[in-house]
Specification:
The protein has 11 helices and 15 strands. By secondary structure, the protein is an alpha+beta fold. The strands form 5 sheets. It has a 4-stranded mixed sheet with strand order 1-2-3-4. α3 packs parallel to α5 and α5 packs across α6. The two termini are 20 Å apart.
């Protein structure tokens, strides 16, 4: 989504779903634009939300827009991994506090941009745990802005105005205005301070905890219409597959691509340098084959002749490593908490049962192999991919490829 920033003036942008995904502009939705600096709160959560990179953002101008027909568009800033937490639960929380009609709500995916949206690292089962309160504040803030807009139009005390299920009611006269009728006026107001917000009591929730809202993407996922990282197609797209080292931290010594370049459709072969340890989430290197279609790329990769240096892990033995782990776990550990007398109780127990459990390493592998589509044009880099950290991916791309961060856009597809 394109946010028109101006610290002095309110800017209204017209944005459609498709154009939001392209980070350009304009179709008829009054956007509560991010013209004010993103509100960050040092939420004292035990889960540490305030300590995550870029923290949390609670400004309704960032997350909510309403068009003149009353359609409420809510930005999903976290990555959707199939559970519904990012693109259903969090927007639903916003809609509940906004007292919006869920049938008139549309959810769109934000790009990777932690300066605007706050932390986007979707991991550790933290999305709802960290963001239920901020998203409630977003919804309550947008609701208050609609109420303020109605009170100003009717020239009445704001205390006499209440938002109820996609309408704002003047409780004294019974007059009503729909959210769409108030959208432009509400968008012109500054975000309310957090201490001025009145959050709903749980007894007033319409959606939270009711089990009545289905996953936003459920139909598209089950019918094959959902867009994942590999589904993006752009005009003139070339396709690449990579031959990776068989051993972690292995390196390419040399390669012969003469047979590869004879495969019809192959365009180019590129050696990729690996990342010094610890590699973390960085590329492991290898040789990429670029072609006009995936079949040509795969056949070209099969034809490569590569000499590898397996590096420090060449002699790795999983049986020996298991024994090393068992030996380490039987040694005294660091005491994190001590309550009661566990050792004494075990010694005096009539019966002690001992068991050992071993779980082998399990690959953190997705059903869909990670993939990305990139386009570079006019000095800008645009990437479509499935990533748990769209904001982090944007940062890494900018650094690795030497782009100014503002010229990098990461579109987060379904994972």
């Amino acid at each position: 989504m394109t946010h028109h920033r101006n610290q002095q003036n309110v800017v209204l942008a017209n944005v459609s779903r498709r154009q939001m995904l392209k980070s350009i502009g304009a179709t008829g939705a009054f956007v509560l634009a991010a013209q004010f600096p993103a509100t960050r709160q040092a939420m004292a959560y035990a889960t540490g939300a305030d300590k995550m990179p870029h923290g949390v953002v609670t400004n309704p101008h960032i997350f909510v827009s309403i068009d003149k027909d009353g359609l409420v568009t809510i930005q999903a800033a976290r990555a959707e991994m199939g559970t519904g937490a990012a693109r259903t639960s969090l927007p639903m929380i916003v809609a509940d506090e906004l007292d919006a009609d869920w049938s008139r709500v549309k959810v769109v995916q934000s790009p990777g941009d932690e300066e605007t949206y706050g932390n986007q690292d979707t991991d550790g089962s933290r999305s709802v745990r960290h963001f239920i309160q901020p998203m409630r504040q977003v919804g309550a803030g947008a609701r208050k802005m609609l109420e303020q807009a109605a009170a100003k139009r009717w020239n009445v005390d704001p205390a006499e105005v209440e938002a109820r299920f996609h309408e704002v009611l003047h409780t004294v006269s019974g007059k009503k205005l729909g959210y769409g009728e108030l959208a432009a006026d509400a968008a012109a107001l500054p975000a309310p301070s957090l201490d001025s917000l009145q959050l709903k009591k749980p007894s007033a929730f319409r959606y939270i905890g009711k089990g009545a809202v289905t996953i936003v993407d459920l139909h598209d996922i089950t019918t094959g219409k959902a867009v994942y990282g590999q589904d993006v197609r752009l005009p003139g797209t070339l396709y690449a597959v990579i031959e990776r080292p068989a051993v972690v931290q292995g390196k390419v010594v040399s390669y012969d691509d003469s047979a590869t370049m004879k495969v019809p459709g192959v365009v180019k072969v590129v050696k990729l340098d690996g990342t010094p340890p610890p590699a973390a989430y960085s590329p492991l290197g290898g040789v990429a084959v670029i072609a006009k279609n995936t079949w040509a790329a795969i056949k070209g990769r099969d034809a490569l002749k590569i000499t590898w240096d397996d590096g420090p892990n060449a002699s790795f033995d999983s049986v020996a490593y298991k024994a090393e782990l068992e030996d380490a776990v039987r040694k005294p550990g660091r005491v994190e908490r001590s309550e009661g007398d566990a050792e004494g109780t075990l010694k005096s127990a009539a019966k002690v049962i001992t068991a050992e459990y071993y779980s082998p390493h399990i690959a953190h592998a997705t059903m869909e192999p990670p993939a990305a589509t990139a386009r570079i044009a006019d000095g800008k880099l645009e990437v479509w991919t499935s990533t748990q950290s769209p904001g982090g991916a944007r940062d890494d791309l900018a650094k690795r490829l030497g782009f100014d961060q503002k010229n990098v856009v990461v579109h987060c597809a379904l994972l």
